[in-house]
Design goal:
By secondary structure, the chain is of the alpha+beta class. The protein contains four helices and four strands, in the order ααααββββ.
């Protein structure tokens, strides 16, 4: 195998993980910014930064009502720690694309351990939240 070809393979092998990490890091940053808006009651801001996949079925008011109902008795966020990330190219009921499914263990004032799952979707180079679930 020519040395040039080996160099190309090695270069690709070494740069792909760092690019994947950068994408995951960007996806997590978008998710955390969205969660911060939700945590502080800025639902309109969260809605504006959301993916059309989330915006289409929900108005800003519906987003507030839905998340408010799900988190009604939790109280304020005390801590949040990412415990998992999975990259996907398809999600149920959504178009194929680049998705990151991030899982956080979150401690709220009235709930010591809640699992939050948030799914950013890469759209035209920008990560936007397309789904949010609490368990």
């Amino acid at each position: 195998m020519p040395k040039t070809l080996i160099f190309i393979f090695v270069t690709l092998f070494l740069t792909l993980p760092s690019q994947a990490y950068a994408h995951t890091s960007d996806a997590e940053a978008a998710a955390l910014a969205w969660l911060e808006a939700i945590d502080s009651g800025q639902y309109e801001q969260a809605w504006e930064s959301s993916s059309p996949l989330l915006k289409k079925p929900l108005s800003p008011h519906m987003l507030e009502r839905t998340i408010g109902a799900a988190r009604r008795d939790f109280g304020a966020v005390q801590s949040r720690r990412r415990v998992g990330v999975v990259r996907e190219t398809s999600m149920p009921g959504a178009p194929r694309g680049d998705y990151a499914v991030l899982t956080f263990q979150t401690r709220f004032e009235n709930k010591p351990q809640i699992t939050e799952t948030i799914t950013p979707h890469l759209e035209e180079g920008t990560w936007r939240v397309s789904g949010y679930y609490v368990n």
